[in-house]
Design brief:
CATH superfamily of chain A: Carbon-nitrogen hydrolase
Number of helices of chain A: 8
Strand content of chain A: 15-25%
Number of helices of chain B: 9
Strand content of chain B: 5-15%
Largest interface: A-B, 24 and 19 residues
Number of domains of chain A: 1
Helix content of chain B: 40-55%
Shape of chain A: globular
Shape of chain B: globular
Radius of gyration of chain B: 18 Å
Number of strands of chain A: 13
Strand order of the largest sheet of chain B: 2-1-3
Mean pLDDT of chain B: 89
Oligomer: heterodimer
Radius of gyration of chain A: 20 Å
Low-confidence stretches of chain A: 294-298
Order of helices and strands of chain A: EHEHEEEHEHEHEEEEEEHHH
Helix content of chain A: 10-25%
Structural class of chain A: alpha/beta
């Protein structure tokens, strides 16, 4: 069955939880029944939480999902989660009919340069899991930086994802360098390239929703995108203003992308496990006496 | 007769940068519940540019040198301090954000005091076409504009291009490089508000989360 995917590229207000919640509910009310509706990373609270993260963090059972008028609509949003063991996580949750049905805790927390997430949040312990916004659409969630760690999208694909959602709060950086960039920040280009590569490699849809707006010197770069399983860009949002993308996902398009190609079918998990085990047990990745492959060898 | 103001071309680099600067200042006003900005620096091409960029969106107050002149004596003859004092008192009275229009080289080398530098990530040479001219940092006084351009290019290579300041400054005459290095060292930590001596278990600006 076809699935309407809606990405809301919003500008959440920092610390204004109720305002953000109402704004999300207002937007969901206008979306088609039975949609999968997605908001950016930390869309409930804003991104630059700093010392306020613990104050704004919520335990899942104390966090009422954003309501949708239609019980078959699934809403995915980002929030700071207060876990029972008192750790904070940068989390994303999926809710339907007033109940949470899935959650992902961000594993890779950027803590370099302008980013400070590792000082605020604990890293999630698991890779992405599958949830079903509709029985035909196994879906996995990644959060922002995690798209740059290809193993996570790979794991999602191996678990059967036909759709990967990426919730982002990616700042704009760098002057545009070419006609191709248009007026967009230079940092937009690699995000677009990564999204297309992941979708094409694994034969799945990818919906990346990035936020816009500013927080204390940082401007978020928007440019949300929906990519088909053949790597084609199906919809792309503005780079500076709030925007909304709606694309109907078609099961047939996934089938076409995976047939007659056999990348997904031929993936050799035993090989990957063997090689990873080897790398993990040997710091260098090579045991004494192992021979490297000849350059150009098969 | 009204002076003819330069038009910012839609889709141009100036339009893009103006939009980023305006967004950031607008958000800062919203989170601080303030109503506009006050430019706490003597009239300058950069200050005029900033005012031109921000005025369509918010209230922008710029000082009159005559009024600030009266504060210079009280500030011990320090004109910058007098402008800051005027800016802060105006800001407190009228619910404004104090801003300084210094460009990146000036912020790095002169380390002026201000809670906000809306143009502080733009090199002087980037601003020149839009502002008509730019201010040479006090740290480079007497070197001339050509030398300033060379210094700025070295800073750009060292910082933005990742060459490292040691390598980049080696391209400059030794005396100039020393002067720049000294100013950089002095200014390096000056633009990190707030400075609060840590005495309790949780200190604003020092500790990340309670």
């Amino acid at each position: 069955m076809r699935l309407p995917l809606v990405l809301h590229q919003t500008a959440p207000r920092l610390g204004a939880v109720e305002w953000n919640r109402e704004e999300m509910a207002r937007r969901v009310a206008g979306d088609p029944a039975g949609s999968l509706v997605v908001f950016p990373e930390l869309s409930l609270t804003g991104y630059d939480l700093g010392a306020g993260a613990r104050e704004l963090a919520m335990a899942e059972d104390a966090l009422p999902p954003v309501s949708a008028p239609d019980p078959d609509t699934t809403i995915v949003l980002g929030y700071p989660e207060l876990a029972p063991d008192h750790r904070l996580y940068n989390a994303a949750g999926a809710a339907r009919a007033g109940a949470w049905i899935a959650r992902h805790r961000k594993r890779y927390l950027p803590t370099y340069g302008m980013f400070d997430e590792g000082r605020i949040f604990a890293p999630g312990a698991r890779g992405p899991r599958i949830f079903l916004p509709h029985p035909d659409w196994p879906t996995a969630i990644l959060i922002c930086e995690e798209l740059w760690h290809p193993a996570l999208a790979y794991l999602a694909a191996l678990r059967g994802a036909r759709l990967v959602l990426v919730l982002a709060a990616a700042p704009g950086r760098g002057q545009p360098q070419s006609q191709e960039d248009g007026p967009r920040f230079r940092s937009h280009r690699p995000w677009r390239l990564l999204a297309r590569t992941v979708a094409l490699t694994h034969g799945l849809y990818l919906g990346l929703v990035n936020r816009v707006g500013a927080e204390e010197g940082v401007v978020f770069a928007g440019g949300s995108i929906v990519v088909g399983p053949d790597g084609e860009v199906l919809a792309e949002a503005d780079h500076r203003a709030e925007d909304r993308l709606e694309v109907e996902l078609e099961p047939e398009r996934v089938r076409q992308a995976r047939h007659p190609y056999s990348h997904v079918r031929d993936e050799d998990l035993a090989l990957v496990r063997r090689e990873l085990g080897d790398i993990l047990t040997q710091e260098s990745g090579l045991r004494p006496g192992d021979e490297q492959d000849e350059p150009g060898g098969a | 007769m009204k002076s003819k103001e330069r038009v910012v071309e839609p889709g141009s680099e100036e339009a893009r940068v103006r939009e980023v600067v305006t967004q950031v200042v607008t958000q800062a006003l919203r989170t601080r519940s303030l109503e506009g900005v006050v430019v706490a620096w003597p009239p300058s091409p950069e200050g005029a540019l900033l005012a031109r960029w921000l005025r369509p969106t918010m209230s922008v107050r710029v000082g009159e040198p005559n009024r600030v002149a009266g504060l210079v004596d009280a500030a011990g003859g320090d004109a910058d301090a007098a402008w800051l004092a005027w800016g802060v008192s105006t800001a407190r009275r009228d619910r404004l954000l104090v801003v300084h229009p210094g460009h990146k080289s000036l912020v790095l080398l002169d380390a002026p005091l201000s809670p906000c530098f809306p143009l502080g990530d733009l090199w002087a040479h980037q601003l020149e076409a839009w502002a008509g001219a730019t201010t040479v940092p006090r740290a480079l006084a007497g070197l001339g504009r050509a030398a300033f351009r060379e210094v700025e290019e070295a800073l750009r290579l060292g910082l933005d291009e990742g060459a490292g300041t040691r390598t980049a400054l080696a391209t400059l005459p030794v005396e100039t490089a020393l002067r720049v290095r000294r100013s950089l060292e002095t200014g390096r930590y000056a633009v990190r508000p707030p400075l609060i001596p840590k005495l309790s278990p949780w200190t604003p600006g020092v500790d990340p989360a309670p």
